[in-house]
Amino acid sequence: MYEFDLFIDTFRFKAHPIAVLEALSYEIPCLLTPGINIASEVEATPAAIAKRMQDILAARLEFPKRGQAARNLVEEKYSWNQIGKQSLREYFNLLHENYKNIDVIVNSNSSLEVQR
Q: How many CB atoms lie within 10 A of CB 99?
């Protein structure tokens, strides 16, 4: 993936975009349409997509800074540790409605621990 300057994903619906997260982890700028669940503010018309592509490619000098921010986003929100912690929180909340404010800790041996 290091050979790419830009990753574009125009799906109408994609629940968990693994390819987008992979591109972000390689610090590749992404252009996403609203059907991608991690896309925040985008316009999905063909003209808007073309304009945004031009804007992104014109800002090539900013790629390293934006790329590092993208990688940080993936590490902070979408790493396996974070996904595991969020999944454990959700399962715990389903099973124990009285404990809504739990914390999930990743131990040194990579096991997860619930703290109330």
A: 11
Helices H, strands E: what count in the chain?
4, 4
What are the pLDDT digits (tens) for 19-73?
Answer: 888 888 888 888 887 777 776 645 567 787 788 888 888 888 888 888 888 889 8
Cα separation, 1 vs 22, in Å, equals: 9
- Using alpha carbons, select from 110, 51, 56 the residue that is nearest to residue 81: 110
How far is the C-alpha of 112 from the C-alpha of 100, rounded, in Å? Answer: 17
- Positive or negative, the CA dihedral 9, 11, 16, 19 is negative
pLDDT average, residue stretch 73-102: 80
Angle at 36 between CA 31 and CA 41, to 5 degrees: 60
